[in-house]
TrEMBL record:
<protein>
    <submittedName>
        <fullName>IS1595 family transposase</fullName>
    </submittedName>
</protein>
<dbReference type="InterPro" id="IPR024442">
    <property type="entry name" value="Transposase_Zn_ribbon"/>
</dbReference>
<feature type="domain" description="ISXO2-like transposase">
    <location>
        <begin position="130"/>
        <end position="267"/>
    </location>
</feature>
<dbReference type="Pfam" id="PF12762">
    <property type="entry name" value="DDE_Tnp_IS1595"/>
</dbReference>
<dbReference type="InterPro" id="IPR024445">
    <property type="entry name" value="Tnp_ISXO2-like"/>
</dbReference>
<dbReference type="Pfam" id="PF12760">
    <property type="entry name" value="Zn_ribbon_IS1595"/>
</dbReference>
Amino acid sequence: MEKRFNSLSLFEFQTQFPDEDKCREYLANLKWQNEFKCSKCGHGRYCGGNGTYDRQCTSCRYIESPTAGTLFHKSKVPILKAFYIIYYLSTSKNGISSTELSRKLALRQKTCWLFKQKVMKAMESSQNFPMEGKVDVDETYVGGQDDQAIGRNEGKKKIMVVAIERKGKGVSRMYGRVIETASKKNLKKFMGEHIGKQAQVRTDGWTGYKGLESEFPKLTREKSEKKGKNFPQLHRSIMMFKAWLRGVHHSVHYLQAYVNEYTYRFNRHKMKEGIFENLMKRMVSKPPYPYKLIIS
Ligand SMILES: [Zn+2]
């Protein structure tokens, strides 16, 4: 899987963001774009805040920073280092572990881990672009006996439903979700959120998919014994995801976050839009994701 990201080189990145001031300016422009709207009272006019890129509402006097109410909200990571984390996560082919980030940026590993979780939140699918054409769906176990290197200490395996969109002999997109059970309800919800109604969906003979033809008229269920032969791209995609997961992460805790991270990069391997800019936009438009929520 050779992937090239259409992205900033490290040199370009460092030229664009030499200091914290430039980072704040970038965030302010991204957050407010052409129009300011006070998040307390909705008023549309502001004056400069306290000398930074903060903005103060001229009606209720509330001062808002470029990071307030975003995924950067109250982060312990200094803003320039936060930008580096996002840069590495978006441009490294296989991502980067919190341990490696900690070494590169002279931050505590725990601090990097926590901020990385926020970036992974930003990588969550928007569900705005359902898969079309040829789509294969199947469930797989992660952790436990089927996959001994992962989750040995956790002692629990998780079920994940995976869907791929096929293009020619390859795979153009992939989504996955950790589910409690492979029930019809869970499968239907995932498929409804990621697959277009007119897609030619293929599944195996599992009863959980029975009756979903009402949602996806072109759905076909194939006999399970043929599965290995009939779904080669899907099973290869799953294998590669698991291999990647073993390399970066050794438990099935927070599995969904890692699924989000993997599929986010995978689905953009041919994208024209800069992946760094895309991730920044998401960081600014999503609400804060505090520690309490992350570990819950
Ligand atoms: Zn206001």
